[in-house]
Amino acid sequence: MSVTEQDARARLGASLRAHRKEAGYTLADFGNRIGVGPSGLSRMEKGERGIDTLVLRRAAEVLGVGLDAFFPSEEPTVMARDGGVEDERLNEMVDWAVGLQRDMDVVERFGHGAA
User: Fold this and answer.
1) Is 10:3 a contact under the CB 8 Å cutoff?
2) Is residue 11 scored above 60 in pLDDT?
3) What is the CATH number of domain 3-110?
């Protein structure tokens, strides 16, 4: 796993944890509501385990937020592109984000009855 993917998992997990705590859920209660055990949820929130798109969808429904709430916008970053290692990491991050968006689009279209 690349550092970029780990960073993305950590940011997503931290966002999930912040929303869960803001809503007043314990790990056990929230985990029960979204179909994940408390230890698994803890690992997701720490970025140690990936979050399945269906689990993320259930979390959004329980919390009453849209999926975009887990991906807070940040100020745009200006990056110099020189074709080096940073370019490779950037491309990996973009590929990962595109794949995640594709998965979330499928869940949006077909996953409403799966929860």
Assistant:
1) no
2) yes
3) 1.10.260.40
